[in-house]
Amino acid sequence: MPFSKFRRGEASSVSFTGATVQVESVEVVRKRAKHRLIGASVLVLVGVVVFPLLFDTQPRPVPVGIPIEIPGKDAVKPLRAAARPATVPPKDKKEAGAAAVEGAATPAAEMKSRSVVQVGAFADSAKARDTRLKIEKAGFKTYTQVVETPEGQRIRVRIGPFTTKEEAEKVGEKIKSLGLDAAILTF
């Protein structure tokens, strides 16, 4: 039996002048119309629901669970930039005497020593990161410096710079209270 006859079911065929015309019953026609209606409904459903999901142009929002803590204005001291005047060495002694005015600060007097607190020098970057996080949770701003030593590469974890050695010593005491080593370095 050919596929076309199998799908259409049983129908009687009448022959007119050599051409075969099939006469179908009303039930078969209704059944076929019902199948076409269901197929059209499925296609409309796919067009309305599935295609917009596939071709959605806007990305879905990704929830971000990272807490952001912004300190208040009064919690952090403002940074002060020290203005250093450009100095030109005098050409002769007479000019040097004229440049030195009583009570004026000389460039050497303006250059204060700066101090930093070094918490450690680590060969393992994970230990340096853990130490740095522990210090930053205590409220201090840290920085790292990578140096080459005879023993290999080391990561220095430091706090500062401080304008006075007393400030650095106070911070060093607080770091020691956290159970970490602290060394005061002056430049």
Per-chain topology:
Layout: H1 3-8, E1 12-16, E2 19-23, H2 26-54, H3 93-99, H4 107-110, E3 115-122, H5 125-137, E4 142-149, E5 152-162, H6 165-177, E6 183-186
Antiparallel strand pairs: 1-2, 3-5, 3-6, 4-5
Structural class: alpha+beta
Largest sheet: 4 strands, antiparallel
State the total count of DSSP E strands.
6
For this structure, what is the CATH homologous superfamily of the domain at 112-186?
Sporulation related repeat
**Overall CATH architecture of the domain at 112-186:** 2-Layer Sandwich
CATH class of the domain at 112-186: Alpha Beta
Radius of gyration: 43 Å
What is the gist of this entry?
With 187 residues, the chain is α+β, with helices and mostly antiparallel strands.
Walk me through what this model shows:
- By secondary structure, this protein is α+β, with helices and mostly antiparallel strands.
- Among the domains are: 3-54; 112-186, Alpha-Beta Plaits.
- 39% of the residues lie in helices and 22% in strands.
- The strands form two sheets. The protein has a four-stranded antiparallel sheet.
- The termini are far apart.
Main features:
187 residues, 4-stranded antiparallel sheet, 22% strand, single chain, alpha+beta, rod-shaped, Alpha-Beta Plaits
